[in-house]
Amino acid sequence: MIDDILDDAELRMMGAVHSLEHDLSGYRTGRASTGLVERLTVEMYGTEMKLNQMAAISTPEPQQIAIRPYDASSVSAVERAIMKSDLGMMPNSDGKIIRLNIPPLTEERRRELTRQVHKRVEEAKIAVRNVRRDAINDIRALQTDKKISEDDSHGAQDKLQKLTDKYVEDIEHHGKAKEAEIMEV
């Protein structure tokens, strides 16, 4: 029973970390990253598809993203999706490959991005703490129902706190790494 609660809590905490990693990959730094565009939705043939499902995305140069749609007729649809997005970049196309040149970030924009990263890191920490709270409530309910002893309850809560500390530290590590990447000129 306790192990099930702890396993579930750990899975949910891992999910919060993975969600943070996924979100942070979309933050634009001074370098090109496929994470900037792979989640863009492209409307084609009346349906919407993720860009990474319909094109090969690479970074041939540190300041450039290359997008090669599998279907050459979808180049214009991909260009439209990029222009409609909040990336603020103009696509350059030769009819087969779309290139996005990543402009260098201004100091003000870097600071704004680090604030956004910090906010997202705090949200992830809150998610982990909410998981801890739910698990503690479950453990206390077991104790109240006399299914576990008070010692087992305290032991489980200690393990849960260690898990929480581990994932909060992991989240802080990801946040600091991303902030350093953004501030790197």
Kindly describe this structure.
- The protein is of the alpha+beta class and 185 residues long.
- It folds into two domains: 2-25 and 106-183, Ribosome-recycling factor (Topoisomerase I, Chain A, domain 4, Orthogonal Bundle), CATH 1.10.132.20; 34-101, Gyrase A, domain 2, CATH 3.30.1360.
- Helix content is 59%, strand content 15%.
- It is built from five helices and six strands.
- It has a four-stranded antiparallel sheet with strand order 3-4-6-5.
- A hairpin with a 4-residue loop joins strand 5 and strand 6.
- The longest helix has 38 residues, at 107-144.
- It is elongated.
- The chain starts with a helix and ends with a helix.
- The mean pLDDT is 88.
Give the structure's gist in a few sentences.
With about 180 residues, this protein is an alpha+beta fold.
Map the helices and strands.
Elements: H1 2-25, E1 41-44, E2 47-50, H2 51-54, E3 55-61, E4 64-69, H3 75-84, E5 92-93, E6 98-101, H4 107-144, H5 150-183
Antiparallel strand pairs: 1-2, 3-4, 4-6, 5-6
